[in-house]
Amino acid sequence: MKKENKSNYKFKDIFCVINSKGGVGKSTVAMQVIAPALYLNHPDKKIHVWEIDNNNKSNKHISSKYLKYESIKLDKSEMAINDIEFSNLTDPNTINVIDTGGSDDATKILAHLKQVNLTGLQYILPTNEDMDQIDNILAVIEIIRQQDKFAKIYLLLNRCISLTEEKIKQQFINVFGSRELGIPSQIENLKIDEILFVENSNVYTLLKSHYKIAMLDFYFESVDLRENIQEYKVQWSQQGHEVFSANNGKFIFSGLVLDLIEKLEPIRKALL
Description:
Blueprint: E1 14-17, H1 26-41, E2 46-52, E3 67-72, H2 77-90, E4 94-100, H3 104-115, E5 122-127, H4 133-147, E6 152-160, H5 165-171, H6 173-176, E7 194-199, H7 203-211, H8 215-227, H9 229-238, H10 241-263, H11 265-271
Parallel strand pairs: 1-4, 1-5, 2-3, 2-4, 5-6, 6-7
């Protein structure tokens, strides 16, 4: 039997955003970073985001014309994984993104993936600078590597204060270590394929809580606003001062969204 070569392996269009630790921004990363990056890479495909979590429905009230979103309890995860695998085998025009819960939710979903021998997935592990994070990351990576020899694993450093190499290493000493502080680097211990970076921004919170819209949808609105702003300003002015002022604020915010999408370009390239 011919041995498969990972360098030539075609990964499945299934991306799993996972970490056994809560509070690292998994749901935001799944819906507002990974999903739009995948759509912009493949505008001819559908993006289906599955949030499998007993304690979180963080994206439930975010509307999107471009992304399909489902929130599922953990006890329905076997059925969801079955649907995801079926979709992958029968619908080449759909990319599935799994957003897992923290704690035992993550390990149970990995166990379900192992039970059905679903391999060749691409895993994104978001983390912050918390020193306790590294043990959780190492444990999750070990499980993935044991059950999926073809897995591609990205470590995503979330909420970066700056995207410069020096500042990233200073912030994430849990990953890169610090010779000055006597903290060892974990780079050699992390069996990952690539490191991704997401800059800290209040844009994500405003999209979720104020505008209640997916990053991808607001991005397309922002492009339209920028291209046709003079026409829009005339329309707004005809609706009164309050409407004009509110939409001017939206126009300013659109610039922040466009800037953030541009900063996600390295992630888009990594996920191609």
